[in-house]
Specification:
Structural class: alpha+beta
Shape: globular
Number of domains: 2
Largest sheet: 8 strands, mixed
CATH topology of the largest domain: Glutaredoxin
Helix content: 25-40%
Strand content: 15-25%
Oligomer: single chain
CATH architecture of the largest domain: 3-Layer(aba) Sandwich
């Protein structure tokens, strides 16, 4: 075999080899940035929105719901999480229309609809804050494994709330699909949401 023919054959083999690697890389399953859960039964509850209207999770069927339990007096975790979720929505751009971010208060004693109205939309105009009676909040939190408890402290606030800091993603049918731990980067949240939206 001539040298030129050998060279062409070697180049062809390299192209086939690297092409196979590229295809294998593209075929790898997407890796989510949170804890992936098997779809549960649809979750639903009804609470009072920051607008004063009664709102149910089922009202958002057809959208992905990003659910966070927090409170307005929170000194660090809650404002940081809402700011990161706001950034994730900005990254998604027009695709964010398929997502609804909701914060449910774990401090209904202080978080009235009026207080939530001054707090939650300040992070993003489309975000919704929900409140209700202590029993209603408990019924909303318990099926999702959300922990919260009052922690008495000195100072003007009187108490703080210890609470689960993760963020839960519900699919379009209201089933829990993904849980992001506190501190998940907005870029990673946006990437996961974009992947889910792409599959629709």
């Amino acid at each position: 075999m001539k040298t030129s023919a050998k060279l062409i054959l070697i180049i062809a083999l390299f192209m086939v080899f690297f092409g196979a690697i590229l295809v294998a890389g593209c075929a790898r399953p997407y890796e989510f940035h949170g804890m992936v859960l098997q779809p549960s039964d649809p979750i639903d509850f009804t609470l009072t929105a920051h607008t004063g209207e009664r709102v149910s999770l089922s009202d958002f069927r057809g959208k992905y719901v990003v659910l966070f339990f927090g409170y307005t007096f929170c000194p660090d975790v809650c404002p940081l999480t809402l700011a990161e979720l706001s950034r994730a929505m900005q990254i998604l751009g027009d695709k964010a229309e398929g997502v609804q971010v909701i914060m449910v208060t774990v401090d209904p004693e202080r978080d009235t609809a009026e207080r939530l109205a001054n707090y939650v939309p300040s992070f993003h105009p489309d975000f919704i804050g929900l409140t209700g009676s202590a029993d209603e909040i408990a019924k909303a939190a318990t099926p999702l494994g959300i922990f919260y408890a009052k922690n008495e402290v000195e100072g003007a606030s009187g108490y703080l709330m210890d609470h689960t800091a993760s963020v839960t993603l519900l699919d379009k049918e209201g089933r829990v699909r993904l849980v992001w731990p506190f501190g998940t980067a907005p870029e990673d949240i946006a990437s996961d949401l974009e992947y889910m939206l792409k599959g629709d």
